[in-house]
Every structure is written in C-alpha cells, then in structure tokens.
Amino acid sequence: MRTIHSLILGSIALLVSASLYAESPTEIYQRRVIPLLQAPAGSSCAECHLQGVKLTDFLSTDPKETFAALRARGWIDANRPTESKILQFIAKKPEKSTELMNQVRRAEVEAITAWIQASLADPDSLNTPLPKLDDLKLDEKLIQHARRDQVVSRFVDVIWSQFERCANCHSPDRNSKQVEKHGEQISWIVPNSPEETLQLLEERKLIDLDHPVDSMLRKKGLGLEDHGGGSKFPKDGQTDREWNKFLTDYAAVKKARYTSSSELPNFASIRTWRNGLHLRIKDLPNFTAGQYAVIRIRRILPDGNVAEEAVAIGEGRASKEGTSWSTTLMLLEPPQLRQTEQAVPWATLMPDGRYQIEWIVVDDSNQPIEKLLALPAMKIAVIDSLWKAGHSNAKTISYSEFQ
C-alpha cells in the first residue's frame, strides 16, 4: 500500500511540476521563432515570393503583438490551430525546392505551431487588442505580381517563347559544334526549364539588374553587341519593347523597387511563339534602309476563302542597302485561348497548306501587336506550302510576287 501511495504522490508532483515549469508563449517564441526570423538562410517565403513577403513582414519580435496581428488578419484558426492559414502558407512549396529550404520550412511550421497552441491557451495573449489591418508593406496585387511562379510565367510568355531563334547556338541539346568552338559558357538555355534558364541568365550577367535595358541578352539579340547570330529582332519593334518591359520589370521585382501596383507594366495581351520559319523578301523598290515593316499570315481555307484571324506575324527592318527585309515568324494564339491560362498547342497552329502573306510598311514601329494585326494590308502574296525551319532554309519571295 505504501508503495502505491508513493507512486500516486510522485505522479501528482510531476504533474504539478510540469504545470509550473511549462514554457509560456513568450518563451517558446523567443527560443524557437525569433531565431528563425534572424536565420541567415532566410525564410521559406523567398522560395515563392521575390518581393513583398517574408516572415518578418508579419512576425515581429513581440509575440503578443504578432499573435494579435495574425488573428486580426484571420491567419490563426482558434478551433483548429494546426490548420491556421499562416501555417498553410508556410507549408506551401514550389515544385523544385532545396533540402535546406525543406528543413527551414519544417522548422518554421513546428515552431510557429507550438507557439500558436500555447498562445491560444494563454489569457494574456488572447486579451491583447487586435490591430487594424494596415501592416502590409505592399498591396496584394503587387505581392501576387512578385510571386516567383508569376515572374516565370511572364518570362515564358515574353522571352522563353522566342528562344527558338537562339537554341541552335545556346541550348546544350543542339549546340555541340558551338561548344567545341566557344566553350561551355555559350550554353545558357536549360532545356525544358524556363525557371532555371532565367536564373542562369542572371548568374551569367546576361540580365543586368541595375541597368536592365542594357542587358546583354537584349543587346546581343538586337545585334548591338558582337553576336555571331546577328540581329534577331528589330530595335524598338514589338519584340524589343516586350523584352525591355520584362527585363525592367524583373529587375524592379528582384531589387524591390516597386512600392505600389500602380507602377506595374501592362504586357501584350496576345502571346506569340517563334516557330523557326524564316521569311525573306528581296528586290524591294525605293525602300529606306532600316525601314520597319511587318507581315501577317492568314490561312487560305479549303474553299478558297481566307481565314479572318491571322495565324502568324513577323517584324523586321530593311537591310542597310534597303533592298531586302527578313523575319522569323511568330505564331499567334487562337482567339479562344487568349487571356487564358490554357496551354497552347503550338505545333497545330500552323499546319502545312496555302497561306496569304500580307505586307505592311509601318511608319511608327511603336505599335502594339493588337494594332499591327488590325492595319490594312498594302500588298498580298500567296504561298502554296510551308517550308522547313531554320535560317538556312529561309523562304525567299521577290517583292514583284506581291499584288
């Protein structure tokens, strides 16, 4: 009996001791959460957000103040604390994550969960007045704009979509001869990975975050810097303006230059994709060197009628002699897929067949693609079939073939 009595008394003593010495929410926060806020590895937020979101934006050094702010925002679930929004946000991760960030994420979830649970059982924490929701440094539209997946999506739409013209020299799955001649540094495209390609472009200093308009990626594409591939698109044309816009926007996000969503640029609403078909028009009469011109291509239907919507567009400037003009075709999204997130079946947009080529000289190259597509045709030619992709397989048409 005396032994059982001793065990009961010992158990009671342990329970009393545990209740007396259990960590308070403040102690948990100081011991487990604050070190995460100060960690040199940064917070897991940076994996998805390039600007505007990090743990220190929402978690201060004051645990009660932080608890009240998270409750006011609706990011703490008092009934199901482990399902609180703040924990759900932290638990999200990109498709490709590093082991270091996985460890950081687990530590953040475990520490903040323990602190939330302790705070919900603490009267002082629960009685802290809730603040007004004015703590966000950036508005939600800007925070969304700076998400890594949104940045990569814009990179795909604007620049990655045009890399067909660059791949033969700069993609390791095609450029073995170029690598033998110039070395591995010539490869800056990571096949099938636009996100890794964007990162590599920055690491190789091909994107200049301080002076984005002077980025080597753009200057080489324009032929303003020594470039064995020559000029890939005309200066101040549609492609150049969109590339400039992306590079400037990317630098602003990476350097945290934006303060409001009112500063965000508007990108072209019609997405394009280079298909590698080169077109050259020769024997231009009385044409000014450097004159900007575009061509539109419409499909000729089996009944002989011409489709209302163009399937491709090309832009370029006349040669120094003013006698020829060339371009690489950009495929256009079908109208039903514009303004959507649906994947575009690029290979089916321009099947073999007969096409009408429409020639348009543009006095002002600063025209958005929507206006270029609406301009009246000045001359028209017809081709009976498509040709092979590649600069060496360029289709050449004499200006005299246009009516």
Q: How would you describe this structure to a colleague?
A:
With 403 residues, the chain is of the alpha+beta class. It folds into three domains: 19-133, no CATH class; 144-263; 272-401, Sandwich (Immunoglobulin-like), CATH 2.60.40. The chain has 14 helices and seven strands. The chain has helices spanning 2-21, 25-37, 63-73, 85-91, 99-120, 123-126, 140-145, 148-158, 167-170, 176-182, 194-203, 216-222, 238-254, 369-372; strands spanning 272-282, 292-299, 312-317, 325-332, 355-361, 379-383, 395-398. Strands 6-5-2-3-4-1-7 form a seven-stranded mixed β-sheet, with no helix packed on it. A hairpin with a 7-residue loop joins strand 3 (312-317) and strand 4. Helix 2 (25-37) packs antiparallel against helix 5 and helix 8 (148-158) runs antiparallel to helix 13 (238-254). The longest helix has 22 residues, at 99-120. The N and C termini lie far apart (114 Å). Residues 4-20 have low confidence and may be disordered.
